[in-house]
TrEMBL record:
It catalyses: 1,2-dihydroxy-5-(methylsulfanyl)pent-1-en-3-one + O2 = 3-(methylsulfanyl)propanoate + CO + formate + 2 H(+); 1,2-dihydroxy-5-(methylsulfanyl)pent-1-en-3-one + O2 = 4-methylsulfanyl-2-oxobutanoate + formate + 2 H(+). Belongs to the acireductone dioxygenase (ARD) family. Its EC number is 1.13.11.54, 1.13.11.53. Binds either 1 Fe or Ni cation per monomer. Iron-binding promotes an acireductone dioxygenase reaction producing 2-keto-4-methylthiobutyrate, while nickel-binding promotes an acireductone dioxygenase reaction producing 3-(methylsulfanyl)propanoate. One of its GO terms (biological process) is L-methionine salvage from methylthioadenosine. It is an enzyme of class 1 (oxidoreductase). Ni(2+) binds at residues 90, 92, 96, 135. This is Acireductone dioxygenase. Pathway: Amino-acid biosynthesis; L-methionine biosynthesis via salvage pathway; L-methionine from S-methyl-5-thio-alpha-D-ribose 1-phosphate: step 5/6. Keywords: Amino-acid biosynthesis, Cytoplasm, Dioxygenase, Iron, Metal-binding, Methionine biosynthesis, Nickel, Nucleus, Oxidoreductase. Catalyzes 2 different reactions between oxygen and the acireductone 1,2-dihydroxy-3-keto-5-methylthiopentene (DHK-MTPene) depending upon the metal bound in the active site. Fe-containing acireductone dioxygenase (Fe-ARD) produces formate and 2-keto-4-methylthiobutyrate (KMTB), the alpha-ketoacid precursor of methionine in the methionine recycle pathway. Ni-containing acireductone dioxygenase (Ni-ARD) produces methylthiopropionate, carbon monoxide and formate, and does not lie on the methionine recycle pathway.
């Protein structure tokens, strides 16, 4: 069963739980409020069982493709570099769907107050992160996870590693795409509309910080926001001068 809590940024190893003392748990209902959905499929019952359940789940939610990756220091190429990349905050324009076949790890997601929420996943946990949510991933101190990734479409660069359910009635997913990133950083980031909605929810300080972070990722949008803001300030000043 998945568990989640408010992330304590104590600057220690990212693989640590990072809980406050006392812990500040986050319920599944709270996760659902900002679009993070949780399901459980008992992967310990064996491949035949979980494949059958995943087939039904994927059909219901229109996930056409899937693959499996195996992240462990002994088998995963460029392990240390990839672990750092996974932990970089990012977002996607599509859902991120992960079903944990074995091992464990942490997904961190930002809530509506821009706080990091840490979600601990282990065998059988199926997590759906909504499009446009800021998130990151890290292994925990067990240093191993084997997730199945499900996709509505195949992300760029993963075509050769992903099995299409539409091509086979009983897909046997054996792709061990160790070169793939768990976070598919090549997928375009969220839509401008979703991003603006998120920015407008922030207070002034966080808004400025977020804008600064976005300057490389979305330079055109940041320029537009700055230009619009300057125009509004100019008009307000003119109005103020006219009235005096
Ligand atoms: Fe991601």
């Amino acid at each position: 069963m998945v568990s989640a809590w408010l992330f304590n940024d104590d600057k220690s190893d990212q693989r640590n739980p990072h809980q406050f003392s006392p812990n500040q748990p986050i319920s599944l209902a709270e996760l659902a409020e900002f679009g993070v959905l949780y399901f459980f499929i008992d992967a310990a019952r064996g491949e035949a069982y979980y494949q059958s359940e995943i087939d039904k789940f994927a059909k219901a939610r229109n996930y056409k493709n899937r693959d499996i990756i195996n992240i462990h220091k002994d088998t995963f190429p460029n392990y240390d570099e990839k672990i750092k990349i996974f932990f970089e905050e990012h977002l996607h324009e599509d859902e991120e769907i992960r079903f944990v076949l074995d091992g464990s790890g942490y997904f961190d997601v930002r809530d509506k107050k821009d706080r990091w929420i840490r979600i601990a996943v282990k065998q059988g946990d199926l997590l759906i992160l909504p499009a446009g949510i800021y998130h990151r991933f890290t292994l925990d101190t067990n240093n191993y996870i084997k997730p199945m990734r499900l996709f509505k479409e195949v992300p760029n660069g993963l075509q050769s590693t992903v099995t299409s359910q539409t091509q086979t009635r009983t897909p046997t997913v054996r792709s061990t795409s160790n070169n793939s990133s768990l976070s598919e950083r090549s997928i375009p980031i969220q839509t401008t509309h979703a991003l603006l909605r998120r920015l407008l929810r922030l207070n002034s300080t966080r808004f400025m910080l977020r804008l600064w972070k976005l300057r490389l990722e979305r330079p055109t949008l940041v320029r537009s926001i700055c230009t619009s803001s300057l125009l509004v300030i100019f008009l307000l000043l003119r109005r103020s001068m006219d009235s005096t």
